[in-house]
Amino acid sequence: MEINGVEIQDTFAEAFGIQVSRLLVTAATKKLAKIAATEATGYGTSVIGCPAEAGIDCYVPPQETPDGRPGYIIMICNMDKKKLDHELLERVGMCILTAATTAVFDAMKNPDEKMTTGKKLKFYGDGYEKMIEIDGRTIHSIPLMAGDFLVEEELGVRSGVAGGNLFIMADTPASGLLAAEAVVNAIESVPGTITPFPGGIVASGSKVGSNKYKFLGASTNEKMCVTLKDDVEGCQIPTNVDGVYEIVIDGVDEDAVKAAMKAGIEAAVKVPGVLKMSAGNFGGNLGAYKLNLHDLF
Amino acid sequence: MEINGVEIQDTFAEAFGIQVSRLLVTAATKKLAKIAATEATGYGTSVIGCPAEAGIDCYVPPQETPDGRPGYIIMICNMDKKKLDHELLERVGMCILTAATTAVFDAMKNPDEKMTTGKKLKFYGDGYEKMIEIDGRTIHSIPLMAGDFLVEEELGVRSGVAGGNLFIMADTPASGLLAAEAVVNAIESVPGTITPFPGGIVASGSKVGSNKYKFLGASTNEKMCVTLKDDVEGCQIPTNVDGVYEIVIDGVDEDAVKAAMKAGIEAAVKVPGVLKMSAGNFGGNLGAYKLNLHDLF
Amino acid sequence: MEINGVEIQDTFAEAFGIQVSRLLVTAATKKLAKIAATEATGYGTSVIGCPAEAGIDCYVPPQETPDGRPGYIIMICNMDKKKLDHELLERVGMCILTAATTAVFDAMKNPDEKMTTGKKLKFYGDGYEKMIEIDGRTIHSIPLMAGDFLVEEELGVRSGVAGGNLFIMADTPASGLLAAEAVVNAIESVPGTITPFPGGIVASGSKVGSNKYKFLGASTNEKMCVTLKDDVEGCQIPTNVDGVYEIVIDGVDEDAVKAAMKAGIEAAVKVPGVLKMSAGNFGGNLGAYKLNLHDLF
Amino acid sequence: MEINGVEIQDTFAEAFGIQVSRLLVTAATKKLAKIAATEATGYGTSVIGCPAEAGIDCYVPPQETPDGRPGYIIMICNMDKKKLDHELLERVGMCILTAATTAVFDAMKNPDEKMTTGKKLKFYGDGYEKMIEIDGRTIHSIPLMAGDFLVEEELGVRSGVAGGNLFIMADTPASGLLAAEAVVNAIESVPGTITPFPGGIVASGSKVGSNKYKFLGASTNEKMCVTLKDDVEGCQIPTNVDGVYEIVIDGVDEDAVKAAMKAGIEAAVKVPGVLKMSAGNFGGNLGAYKLNLHDLF
């Protein structure tokens, strides 16, 4: 299969179930909302080593938010509900509550259940907190030094999908990187998805375990390393490819992740030098979701 | 004491010892280095609830870095050396190694000891890693999908100072916020310091424990809340003040934190509406450092 | 009239007819499109002294552009059609054609007429230019050093409205400035409008002519200067107001400008410290449009 | 000559004399100063079609500015002194005076002469302006709606150098673009220089006149167009090069431009895929300066 002259490999991205929360962070200005959203979603590339997978989903203009102020929707994810509950409490409490002029609203449609983040954070008010209603939502108003922080009582959580992914294969590293940025730009406009790695882009591809160091749970996927093309047997990089980047996608459900993968492929094939689009899987035995690239179109 | 017509309260910031690391993140472009530095220092406002205190210290132009590429120096801090070792491993491994085109170099002068972050991360190369030398430093080159990640074998750590702080008291919330941004801008140019809260600014002031909820370790400092001025006995906010923001500073040593506090005060008093500068302490019994505001000048 | 406790003065913004163009600048990435859009709309606050009034209208995701790449819609305006034709040629030719990976498409709905910007620019190709079709549009492809620049043959122009405006009156300068930023954020989401001043915000208010210097066509409106409140007779600033900022809006038609003014007022009244919203006019004898604030609601 | 394995062609950049001004724009925050500096230097890539060549030279921290606030130094250039005088008046008057919280100071060392920009702008104060002294400088304080704008009475101008340049030749367009960004990052740290094109990068290379259209003063340099490699006789692009970008540099003097070119080459050769560095000239008969690449090292 080819799109715009670029080969789309007949393979699938192997994705996993994950617990996903989705919240709206508003502030007095777009810039202030971005600062809080960025702090709250940092150190959140992969649950392999980070306490959560997190990222900014999209911007919401003031005309469309419950409090009429500009905001960013962020997603925070963890395999484990209890850990997700903890992460919500700390990331909202330490990174958004502490930020200037912010408020937090639930933004998850069709949640499986609710985390009581706001209900727990209100105690920080030491008795001076108040319960109010905004747009039909139960909100706790907590007095802080600089003003009142608003947080919705409950934040919705649902079983989503992590590890949706695309491999971009290009003629040079720079072509791959430029295409990766274009892919991230395209996925930004797909609601209910994030690309949790730095700038949305993954420079490293891993394999499960290690051939040489038995104590390791994961190590570099040597068959996909551009600088090892001539040194490794069974290299999976085409001869004419010297730039490989991965995009990892988490979403509120399978459809969202698939829409993001589709948008990503359509963006990548428009960048000169992109030669092939592929995806990563582990043979299909680990993850619950097999997202076939050809089925996206 | 007055500077530029603004009262500088005769008080002190009570600061604490913390273990500090300081590393340089370089990349092909300034923008790519910033992306990695931001991801690695997110979720890092306060060790009360975050796994580390972290932030960007300063930009280093390509002319002054070991590999001749643009970079940002970041600081990652924790009270506990073992936890700091863990945070370095994960924040570098998950947030910088995974980012496009990056490298990591030690940037700590006069370290007390070294963490072997690079020495541990190299195993990710699964035998394909190489040891090289750059600028007299021992560097591990780890092949990744998109190219080779370079990381210095050891990263210096030293006993630094956390919790240096300033309270900005202004006529309105917006004046306080504008001054807070000006303070952060000024501290950016003081080497060896970070302002770890979102955008460098703290909207919430805490007290130890809680009057009403005995299970809480910390709660809002109701005597410093602008919206509780009329409701709380013993309110410590001057009558004409309605905007209060705090800046928290971590540094490699006491001198760096003091230089940052001085630069911060000098910036704040230039913003119209700033009426008083103060600092936060807990009576002087908790922290090892008492940084008196008047002694800064 | 009051909204959210803020007085909306019973007055009108006096606006003027202007010739407006609206074009879409796409590029390989969002960042590259922003760079070109910013360069092309600089030095474009007011035709009083700038060769055009110009600004960014909105971002368009790759899913919605003719070439499937991310883009920004910009507006370039001048009272005079011939001058606008010149500005289009130079701003597109010098600031977008020269920028990396860009293309330019018409984005004006219901134009009165067309400027042949693309038809003129194609000659730069010195015979190597080609005419192609994208999405039913006639496009010229001009070979450059770094690749081919695409530009639509004709760019639509119509009689729009300049000088729509709001005056924000707040308790302090910082409150006014924060509100101004919030207003600009809100207007960003109103299609067909720009706020051409730096960051969308005007710090200076002018009157026609000068009392003291007869050679001047415009001078500071001393009755609206916060630092002259006690020195000028007939000062029009309320006693409790010390922060005044203006937002100037240009739009493709009267409805767009009115929608922007409405969105701006709704955003401003949510910022603490905003006491009154007003607008600027010259008695109603100069501009063709009288946009009454009360009529917006 | 080779640096880091990249061929440095034995050629020279042909540069021209230009009148250069250099001013410092300060504001309450770094962000506000950047907004004004960006607006004032827009529409300023080349005097061929723009009313000036303009750009941001560098950031100056509050500790080093006359008014203790953060600022950006910008440069505004024109071949003609009278036109430069006009541009200074309009760009400062329309794009900086109108911006929130700004001030303007002279930042030109060793000027040949002075433009009386501040002396002319003061009349806008309509008699309410005041002359003050800051740091030994004569400053006019002009009351505006939002506060007082400060501008130095005279701004220094000197004979500088325009059109210093580098050609980056890389394996692919994306490699060339990434290297171009790295070059711009490096030149940012060379004081007294700007890269006036969008993002500092030029995608188009021109030749004087046109072969086909006699009415044109300049047209695409078809021998340097990557997409015409197979179609044009005498193509000057090496066979293995498919990415060509140019960096144009203006500076306060020849030494500054040479330092920028040197820094640019050193940055470019570190980007994978860069194959050759060259420069543009017109045979040496047009410009007064011949900046030989080999002489830089």
Short characterization:
The structure is a homotetramer of 297-residue chains. Chain A has 297 residues and is of the alpha+beta class.
Key attributes of the depicted protein:
homotetramer, 297 residues, alpha+beta, Alpha-Beta Plaits, 2 domains, 15-stranded mixed β-sheet, two-stranded antiparallel sheet, 5 helices, 17 strands, 35% strand
What quaternary form is this? homotetramer
SS elements, strand count of chain A: 17
Global Rg of chain A? 21 Å
- Level-1 CATH class name of the largest domain in chain A: Alpha Beta
Q: Return the CATH topology of the largest domain in chain A.
A: Alpha-Beta Plaits
Contiguous uncertain segments of 5+ residues of chain A: none
CA(first)-CA(last) distance of chain A: 10 Å
How many distinct helices of chain A? 5
| Relative strand content of chain A | 35-45%
3D shape of chain A:
elongated
Q: Which structural category do the helix and sheet elements of chain A fall into?
A: alpha+beta
User: Order of SSEs of chain A, N→C?
Assistant: EEEHEEHEEHEEEEHEEEEHEE
Instruction: Give average pLDDT of chain A, whole number.
Output: 97
Q: Which pair of chains has the greatest number of interface residues, and how are they split between the two chains? A: C-D, 76 and 78 residues
Q: What is the correct CATH architecture of the largest domain in chain A?
A: 2-Layer Sandwich
Structural domain tally of chain A: 2
| Major sheet description of chain A | 15 strands, mixed
Helix fraction of chain A, binned, reads 10-25%
GO molecular function (chains A, B, C, D): formylmethanofuran-tetrahydromethanopterin N-formyltransferase activity
InterPro entries (chains A, B, C, D): ForMFR_H4MPT_ForTrfase, ForMFR_H4MPT_ForTrfase_C, ForMFR_H4MPT_ForTrfase_fd-like, ForMFR_H4MPT_ForTrfase_N
Protein name (chains A, B, C, D): Formylmethanofuran--tetrahydromethanopterin formyltransferase
Family (chains A, B, C, D): Belongs to the FTR family.
